[in-house]
Amino acid sequence: MSKANNGANLGFESKLWEMADKLRGHMDASEYKHVVLGLIFLKYISDAFQHKYDELAATAETEYTDPEDRDEYLADNIFWVPPEARWEKIQAQAPQPTIGKVIDEAMTAIERENPSLKGVLPKDYSRPTLDKTRLGELVKLVGDIDLKARESGVRDPLGRVYEYFLGRFAAAEGKGGGEFYTPQCVVQLLVQMIEPYKGRVYDPCCGSGGMFVQSEKFVEEHGGRLGDIAVYGQESNPTTWKLARMNLAIRGIDADLGPHQADSFHNDLHKDLKADYILANPPFNMSDWGGERLKEDVRWKYGVPPANNANYAWIQHFIHHLGPNGIAGFVMANGSMSTSTTAELAIRKGIIEDDLVDCIIALPGQLFYTTQIPVCLWFLARNKKADPKRGYRDRSGETLFIDARRMGQLVDRVHRELTAEDIDTIAGVYHAWRSEGGEYEDKPGWWQSATLEDIKGHGYVLTPGRYVGAEEQEDDGVPFEEKMAELTAQLYEQFAKSDALEATIKKNLEVLGYGE
Amino acid sequence: MKAVESSSRGASESEFREFKSGGARFMPFDTLMARITPCLENGKIARYIPSEGVDGPAFGSTEFIVIRGREGITDNDYAYYLTKWEEFRQFAISQMTGSSGRQRVPADSLAKFLAPVPESLSEQRAIAHILGTLDDKIELNRKMNETLEAMAQALFKSWFIDFDPVVVNALRAGNPVPEKFAQRAAHYRDNPERLSLPADTLRQFPDRFQDSELGPIPEGWNLSTIGAEFDLTMGQSPPGTTYNENGNGMPFFQGRRDFGFRYPSLRVYCTSPTRIANEDDTLVSVRAPVGDINMAYETCCIGRGVAAVRHKSGSRSYTYYAMQFLRERFKRFEAEGTVFGSINKKQFQSLSSMKVTPDIITIFENLAYPIDENIRTNEDEMQTLAKLRDTLLPKLISGELRVPDAEKLLEDAL
């Protein structure tokens, strides 16, 4: 994966961000987010429409195509944009004080014409608290994205900008905010590890839908067809759910996020789903998940998770939805690997003894905007037997531990990112370990393949540090004798200096009248 | 700012960056004084000592005030000691302005400070020379201690990690040397005398390797655990009401916060100690982060962040260096615990260790302990020198104590 895909390194996006952020004024980032992202979305569907419109208009004479025939658009999975909602109309009115009302009407018209977007678009641009001069300038800025992108030679600029802005908003909201966003490098690592080429992909806490955007990207990059993946998601926060709908629509991904937002624990919208791949980043150590109202559930196969921490509720929810050959990769707080509270230890023990744990990765700290705590990745495989079709070897009773805590680099004072090379290295090790005939080798201090017995020996603790051992000490190459000779010479020199200094100090004290 | 310490004299570069604008500009050997809360109150004053190959101007944070002697009027070294004078610092603190949290002292208000500067440049130089030699000696002791510790470490590594004496013995006896030590074996094959150990010391080492779970080890030395080879005291924190910073009771170390190069610095005391570390016990931090090593200077009380370790034979130096070489393994416990890393007694005790023949430990101890004693003496001397400097400084700077015959003193010194 090229470095440019890492999002933050594109230049034109960050310039755009700076400009957009200037227009934010005194508004909270969490509120402004919906204003900006809504506009980008509007621009996007209007552009897609216009593109098709021009095509149809060009062939109107020869093939009698009608650019105002909405069926032409539906056939191509393009949203029909009624005349009053088209971007040029909106931009033409940007300097007017009524711009808020114009946008609201455009959003309403699009929702009316496209039932699949019902209730998704923001429609409160005319509220008095939104400064109309700034809004007008913002409209102009979004209108120029294409121009800026063409200068930088970027394809799919609006999708990129949407995702980049999501990330920047997550950063701007900082602690307590940004929960809708998983850092791109973490998503890339998860995706590259489990390779969701085709089948049903599921994320029961999908946030703004980043996991899917990344996996579709992956499929495209590897020559598969977008239609090979069926995407299922669920999100409990209503505004985040809307962000996700837009995020997926902007990428042309047809996903089933359920008819509305809902809590995966208490209102599972995909009850019968058995997924081939699960990708997820559930909230860390969520304490008020309503566990006391859910003591008995078909999902608690390994035991009832504690009411004060949802980690093991999530893990069991994933396992429940995993198909017979399914693989799940998800982010967890580090405590999940070693917690020894009775309920959680019993669940972990059950999962380990059922041989579901395929791989565990300890990640460096400071990867997330929302929290500084170090986190890890879990990979569970329903079936670890040989799978010649996918080229997997029989890994029954084996688990791969990777300690990646020393990887990544700081992008600013408090945030770290895994580099493309780090991601390739980690995923490469896992693939070599998992494949039939793969050239895998343990590397002390970094990765180690362990057996069920080893894990039992460590009291069912899954912390990679326990298994990978110490890194082989880089010898400084200087044989003992040479080192000693060097140190001795140094010491004698210091002794001599010390003697001279001592004499001088004594003399100075004498001069001051404090002789021995 | 981080590079400026209150206790030592030199500040070195923390990074090299392209200079844009703003910030303080200073020359080698200028005095840098922090102007902001709480660095000023803590006495963060240092001189810029450039590293080798760097001699141009340097740039720093806007939170420094740069002080330099004026050509022909004040000596640059003297200027440094003037800023170290308590009265100067108190004056600076009194001039601080700004809102309560982040107060700063404006550079121009410092200019109003009236100081009794000796008119003769040579008297200024003599004062700076007298104080400077004390600081030089402190710095030299610090370097000497680093050299001494490196020597003991090299010896420990050669004997107990690389098994050099066993390799030499195996070569002499014609026994096979494991692949892992092939490079060392090649080094000694033609010239076994390269390892200049007395014959009777060398004889104490085995001449054969055996296999173990952790690779080849000398025959007769067995894999063991920390728990079996060392006595381990895990700290326990006494109630907070028994802590004080007035020197009442026993020195108390809650965690690694006060750890230094070898000995932790004294700050907190406790009147009802619960867990005790003895003089020369090795102290290991067991929480956040795990694995920092220090030595107990005297009997002290240890809190829950610290463990005291001593080899069952009572060996002080052997314990200290053995723990240092375990550091990598301690670091593995960093990822455990949700917020910060920690290691509990059971985990600590079950770390693997080697059971070495008692005679060899004794020989090592006889070689390493004098080195460690020298380090301790140097540390003691540094304390005395610092006290002496701090006692002389106000007297010399205020003019209460004059340097007779300053010219001659300087001449002799050169």
UniProtKB/TrEMBL annotation, chain A:
Source organism (scientific name): Methylomarinovum caldicuralii
N6 adenine-specific DNA methyltransferase N-terminal domain span: 13-141
Superkingdom of the organism of origin: Bacteria
Protein's GO biological process: DNA restriction-modification system; methylation
Family per similarity comment: Belongs to the N(4)/N(6)-methyltransferase family.
MF GO annotations: DNA binding; N-methyltransferase activity; site-specific DNA-methyltransferase (adenine-specific) activity
Record CDD domains: AdoMet_MTases
SUPFAM superfamilies: S-adenosyl-L-methionine-dependent methyltransferases
Protein's name according to its UniProt entry: site-specific DNA-methyltransferase (adenine-specific)
InterPro entries, alphabetized: D12N6_MeTrfase_N, DNA_methylase_A-5, DNA_methylase_N6_adenine_CS, SAM-dependent_MTases_sf, T1MK-like_N_sf, Type-I_RE_MTase_Subunit
Domain DNA methylase adenine-specific: 155-476
